[in-house]
Amino acid sequence: MTPRRTLLASLAAPALARAQESSTAIATAAARFRVVNWATGLQHPWGGAFLPDGRLLVSERPGRLRLVSPDGAASAPLAGGPVVEAQGQGGLLDVALAPDFSSSRHIWLSTATAIPGGVVTRLWRAEFTPGGLANLTAVLDATPAQARGRLHYGGRIAFSPDGQYLFLTTGERNEVRERAQSLGDLAGKVLRLTARGEVPRDNPFVGREGARPEIWSLGHRNPQGIAFNPATGTLFAAEFGPLGGDELNIIRPGRNYGWPLITHGRNYIGTRISEATSAPGFEDPLRAWVPAISPSGLTFGAGGAFPGWRGSAFLGCLNPPGLLRLPMAGDMPGREERMLEGKSRIRHMLFDAAGLAYLLVDDRVGGILRLEPA
Ligand SMILES: [Ca+2]
After folding, report:
1. CA of 260 to the centre of ligand 1 (A)
2. Does the pLDDT at position 8 exceed 70?
3. Contact yes or no for 285/247 (Cβ under 8 A)
4. Distance between terminal CA atoms of the chain?
5. Which of 17, 112, 117, 213 could connect to 206 by a Cys-Cys bridge, CB 3.0–4.6 Å?
6. Residue 245 C-alpha to ligand 1 middle, in angstroms?
7. What radius of gyration do the chain's Cα atoms show?
8. Distance from the CA of 287 to the center of ligand 1, in angstroms?
9. What is the count of structural domains for the chain?
10. Percent of the chain whose pLDDT exceeds 70
11. How many Å lie between the centroid of ligand 1 and the Cα of residue 258?
């Protein structure tokens, strides 16, 4: 990046400039890097996926998809995207490429969407074309719709390493916490579909009276991070607790992760939510954070540009803002490392094919930071 470009980028993006760009190297436990304002002028970027040609497809929560070129220049909004309910924590959420993207050109999106009776987390599929999105199709609504409240949509998408299954997180929507415990309700769950969007016959609650067959696990509050550990093939998810009680969980089929019956968190006014932090029949978190870290995106490092980060799990944190790294031994997280503390709210972290790291900065005047080895 030239000094001139840096200056212009700073003028265009005060929040980013305030945040981070540093010409000096930052030394951390397993990497030395420089922070560069890569893409500026994005409003609440939420999710992203690198295309095979190296461009980044990125979502902005108010309802836009853009392509960012390797030089950081963002395109005009793509045509053909969904109408979204961009209030509270809702809007356009995640974007993911289908495992067979190279041949199908399919992408998947998640949104907050208004339907009769209220708002839901919705999963969509669309075709990515040179002119924008085509054949936009609603695949699943996390019903029932909820009239009140615009919080806790979940919305993160992941595919299994074999490309056969799609996983979607849904939040419990905050108004009625027990939605997370109901098997007849798709809120507060991890859902599993085939990569074509159908219900797999071997999902854990298929055939059970009153249960929704899309459910893979239940008892989640607001999971906004989901990823497979590439070293082991194990599925992990991160979720927001209330006042404290954020969690990292290993996700197994049919298991109940406890919200709101067990939690390490408290109500925002400090009162207890549950008597217990653990109970028979419920899964304990692999790690819980008190006080909160507000974990959003979850990503595993692949190596490449940052060999010291190979296999580590990363959580983008909103409050307090920063990036959290967990070195992993198999599926066991080690001692955590916090980086870039107290600066930008990091919604998600992505790695490109070369292993360079990208941080989605969640701000009205947000953007994407790139970490380059130094
Ligand atoms: Ca839990």
Report:
1. 8
2. no
3. yes
4. 14
5. 213
6. 8
7. 20
8. 10
9. 1
10. 94
11. 5
- Taking the centre of ligand 1 as the mean of its atom positions, its distance from the CA of residue 237, in whole angstroms, is 11
Distance from Cα 210 to the centre of ligand 1, integer Å: 23
Angle at 17 between CA 14 and CA 18, to 5 degrees: 85
Average pLDDT taken over every residue of the chain:
94
Q: Is residue 369 part of a domain?
A: yes
Question: For residue 238, is it within any domain?
Answer: no
Q: What is the rounded CA–CA span in Å between residue 268 and residue 262?
A: 16
H or E element, residue 17:
helix 14-19
For residue 23, pLDDT beyond 80 = no
Model confidence at 303, pLDDT cuts 50, 70, 90, reads: confident
pLDDT in tens, 155-185: 999 999 999 999 999 999 999 999 999 999 9
Ligand 1 is an ion; its neighbours by CB within 5 Å are 257-258
**Cα–Cα distance measured from residue 194 to residue 160, given in angstroms and rounded to the nearest whole number:** 10
Positive or negative torsion for Cα 174, 65, 356, 163: positive
- Give the residue among 247, 359, 355 at the shortest CA–CA distance from 293: 247
Q: What count of residues does the chain have?
A: 374
Helix (H, G, I), strand (E, B) or coil at 185: coil
Of 14-18, 212-216, 321-325, 328-332, the poorest mean pLDDT is in 14-18
Residue 111 inside a domain? The answer is no
Q: Which of 106, 152, 264, 348 is catalytic?
A: 152
Distance 15 CA to ligand 1 centre (A): 34
Q: What is the model's pLDDT at position 21? A: 64
299: pLDDT confidence band, cut at 50, 70 and 90? very high
Contact 54, 352 (CB under 8 A): yes
Mention every residue, 6+ apart, whose C-beta is less than 8 A from residue 154: 121, 142, 168, 169, 170, 171, 188, 220, 222, 223, 224
Return the percent helix, strand and coil in the chain, to nearest 5.
5, 45, 50
- For residue 343, give its domain range: 9-40+293-328+335-357+365-374
Residue 320 belongs to some domain of the structure? yes
Q: Catalytic: 152? A: yes
